[in-house]
Fold these 3 entries.
Entry 1:
Amino acid sequence: MENEDIEYRRQIVSTYKPDVEKLIRYLPWLEEKAAAGSGVAEMFGDNGIREHSITFPVYDSTLMSFIKEVQRTELLDRNYPYIYSRHRIRTLQDELRAISRADIKEMDVLKGILSKYVLGGMTKGRLWTEAVTNRIFLNVIRRMKENIEFWDRPMQ
């Protein structure tokens, strides 16, 4: 039984490690933006556009690179609402609590929270900004990294 558990953890590590390694390079940027509280989007409304059209957000290029990198990984789960309902995650505090408690066996919870913000931000742009300012992206990637390093070896 214990050998099966260890093998299961190794399988999780081997599944998630390549994708998490791609994303940890964004940790310093996410830490900087979360600490500074500075925005990652500006509203474009210059040159008289505001008078004749609607304004729209223009996102930081690093944020867009991060989003595109996540989209190229296996870390997105289009069925993330199921994770939220199964674990009774309803508020920002619930999300942060779930992130801090997630161990290697609960990587699906981290995937679900990441997916909500990445996929949801495709239609509700404010979600990407909220995920940076509320440290969701930072905490999820950091927690994934910690879980993998605990069961494997440190990542660069």
Note: Residues 70 and 76 are 7 Å apart (CA to CA).
Entry 2:
Amino acid sequence: MLHRRIYQFLIIYAIGLGLLLALKYGLNLSDYVIPSPDEIVRTFRSFGGPYFLAVFNTLAVAILGHVLAICLATLVAVIGRLTAWIGSFIRTAAYNIQAYPIVAVAPIIFILLGDGLQSRLLIAAMICYFPLLLSFIGVFSEPIREIEHFYESTGRMTWRLQVKIRAFENIQKLTTVIVGSATMAMVGTIVAEFIAATAGIGYSIRIALYQSDLAKILVALFLIGVGTSLYLVGLEWVGNALQKRLKNV
């Protein structure tokens, strides 16, 4: 799984880089506009180490934000399953909040919390919270009638058991949503760093943009892709292991 995910990313990155270089040589653009392959390799050798540490910093914040969003979405979805009105109200509130682009809300967050870890963590969680919440509400609000009827008829049904039944029956869907939202957490963290933070790969990309150094940006994008691929592989492995364990229970 790891090799397949990395290979897929490398193929996509190579295609994108190839198209960029084809544009460079096709239009006879200077190295200042689009760097040559030699310049990209030299930049990778010079900045690969620092950028790797920056990606690790960003990935750590993205993972924390992702976990925070999962916990919050689970809590709100469990509460939202109590009545149809509460669930409808939560969905409406989520839609309205999501309507505001993060670049419009981020300055307020940075003004209130500063440009440190808290702001990056909150923005990362906000970006991936919405799809998680909607999917979790759908899962926890949909009855599994055959199973739930048995426990209700025997008087053993509790809200905790109901949540466990619905989560177990939809474990594949939950895993897919969680893995898919992981990339959004990474995007949210990078956006936060790009706007106003002083650490992480988003901050490094912002500096490279100010310097008009496309080679640094290409190196950063390569390392971001590798880091994100590794995180997704880890999530898929955990999800598959959990599914196998639950099936054997």
Note: The chain has a mean pLDDT of 82.
Entry 3:
Amino acid sequence: MITYDHDFACRLFYDLLKPKQTDYLENLVEKANKLEKDIELANQKREQIINKINNTSDSTSSKPKEIRNYINNSEFSYESIENLLHNLNQLQQKYTNIRKYLALILESHNLESDKSILNEDLQILSEKISDAIYYEELTQTDNQKCLLLIDNFLHTSNTETVSEIIENITNFEELKDNLVLKVSEKNHIVELPYTKFEIEQFLKQYPNDYKTPQDVIDKEFTGTYAMYNKHPIIARFREAYYLSRNKEMKSIIDSFNYAKNMMFKRDLNPTIIAAVKSEEQLQDYLECLENNNLENFKHFSIIFEINPI
């Protein structure tokens, strides 16, 4: 195991490396531990893929097209897990090289060392850190594609073609954060704000329920205007309870009391409660509302398209 005095390293390098690189070194142990878990999980997925390929009962279809799709998905899935493991192992090697060179510098220098010699060694260390950062960014999208292909193979019936799967991945890559609450009385639609990370989590956790980012958006972040407007008191209670119970993970009693406190706030539109990600965000909105300065509410934009009277 590579060990070194973390506090001493920070003192030695703080004034000699760029802030981004110093932060990288401070987080390197945590990053390396997470990467080790990612590699372990990828190896487990590799075993699952092999077992599924070997188990021909998984391919129960008698239709030639679906059989071909299954074979193609098997091949792509195995190639994807091999590619993912290669990327992760390469990054692990880069982390190891950084830590080894860091330990070597600490053995050779102290706070009173010749700064010119120390700077030469730190320049090499800086290049290794920059290389690791570049490789992380370079492989991020590739790893994401691999994981989506792998999870599709492991958790679905595999009747989709690879081109359809890749099209879904492309749709995901083009997805961006949508930090806008849009309430359209004219179109009878409410569109809630979401982040790309939220969409990704739904796709990962419920692969059988959601095939594309649009599936998640339609089912989780889109509702009817009447759902919030027809009985606003009930809607405020329902959304406040969901916010407290599901988003904040509070107890049933606490969530019930929180919902009761919100249900009779007549100036609070229920869609706002549905749109916020936390009780803290909702409190920010209520304070802005009370002070008549909603322009200071920065968590997301709010658009109300109301039919003229």
Note: The mean pLDDT is 81.
